[in-house]
Amino acid sequence: MKKLLERIGNVDRRIIFILMALAVIVPLALELTMEMPVGEGPSYDLYEYVEDLPADSRVLMSFDYDPSTKPELQPMARALVTHMMSNDVNIVAMALWPQGATLGQTILSSVSDSLGTEQYQDWVNLGYKTGGQVLIVRLGSSLEAAFPTDLEEVPYGEIPMLSDISTLRDFDLVITLSAGDPGIPAWVMIASDRFGVPVGGGCTAVSAPQFYPYLQEREGERPQMEGLLGGLRGAADYETLIERPGLAAAGMSAQSIAHLVIMVFIVIGNITFFATGRKKRTKGGGR
Amino acid sequence: MTTGILGIWAGALLTLCLYSFLYRDNPFYRFAEHLFVGMSAGYWAVYTIFYVLKPNWWDKLVGAGDADPNMLWIIPGVLALLMLLRVVPKLAVYSRLPLALIVGGGAGLQLVTFFQTNGLKQVENTIIPLTGGGTVGFVNNLILVSGVVCGLVYFFFSKAHKGFTGGMASTGITILMVAFGASFGYTVMARISLLIGQTQFLLFEWLPTIPRVLGL
Question: What's the domain count of chain A?
């Protein structure tokens, strides 16, 4: 028994890689789906806030990520844009990360084509601008000074939907999809806490725990963030809520099975450690 | 072969090259790694020149479009050149001037807002009544308040962690461990999500192009 445990404990790491690959590939290839109820929580809060926005509300959406986090944040972007465009909410897009502007444009134009909304009437992409937090402060005084033209070099003054938008305060909501810095903290610090504009958003799963304190709500006061989508799970929640399952919802079965495999390995690792390794180390005079 | 399919194939083959490292280090992996490093350097150099320096400095200096030239923009240009003097050991000391401006300006801008958002607001949100939210609210608020207090006691080293203080410190470290565990769980989820995204790309974008490319 001890030898068997030792062999399991010393298993070639490549076998673990193969099992992990299978745990991801098989559910995706077989298109396995799992029921995923979405209860009250940060994802639902954001959905509810967007859902309650009246038609023709104005949302500033910042694509603060790049292709390295595309699998987590792009499905979120698609779900949010679909929800807002379906509810006739006007979207002004921008990016604090250079490649975010192009990723955002891909989503906006494809969803716009499918829902029949019009660029410059219902949505516009102002593109990328360097500066991070300083840029957000600038948006508080003049949007046009920060973005004289949009991504396609059309002057700010010639874009109809921007005619009555001059500063950050003219927006009903700011949504940031954030993969790091600059991202959610900068928007919360400046847009929410300084200018009083409601902020919501999504982020990679790695950074989600550090943003949960922003959701804390005191009686009679607005929270620092209206809602938060954390990682692929957050994206899948939102897809479920708007009843348009996409890549994130499809990936959740693979995610769950991969997590099960990891948990099994953690349990096996601990059993073999306590059954074999620990005794050896204690005999040798401790660790 | 269209450029779209060419892009998909380049992405797929480079993905496979990088994943081949999971078996062992090999020339395919090193090729993809070096290609990535080289392309990133080139991409960022071009991006910085055309999307950062040109619109934010050069165009304002020479007066692009209808704007008038503004010679004041020579000052940030000179500061940028001073920053580059770091590579000349004898003149490196002058690079401290722009660096001091960046550090001073950054600290000044960040200090108040950062402290308000991430310090004061969070402290304020911890000072909450234990009652008023029903049983669930009471338990939640109790965990929040006692968790914060015990966590702070763990980092209070002026008193030995014995007796009542020791108990609070132990509770504090337990709560910290729970937080680290949650953070680790999220990290695992993030890494698996990236694997899922790349697998979806290989399965649903790359694989369907194989028969077309091979003429089957």
Answer: 2
- Give the DSSP H or E segment for A124: strand A123-128
Q: In terms of domains, do A119 and A12 share one?
A: no
Predicted TM-score (pTM) of this structure: 0.89
> Which residue segment(s) compose the domain that A99 sits in?
42-245
Q: How close is the nearest chain A Cα to the Cα of B44, in Å?
A: 10
User: Residue A174 and residue A136: Cα distance in Å, rounded?
Assistant: 11
Name every chain B residue with its beta carbon within 8 A of the beta carbon of A130.
Answer: 51-52, 56
Check whether B44 has a pLDDT greater than 50. Answer: yes
pLDDT tens by residue, B104-142: 988 888 888 899 999 999 988 888 887 777 888 888 888
Q: Are A171 and A58 in contact (CB under 8 A)?
A: yes
Query: Quick check: A219 pLDDT over 80?
Result: no
Residue A37 lies in a domain: no
Domain boundaries, chain B: 130-216
Provide ipTM, 2 decimals: 0.87
Element (DSSP H or E) covering residue A123: strand A123-128
CB-defined contacts A:B, below 8 A:
107
A182 in any annotated domain: yes
In a domain, A212, yes or no: yes
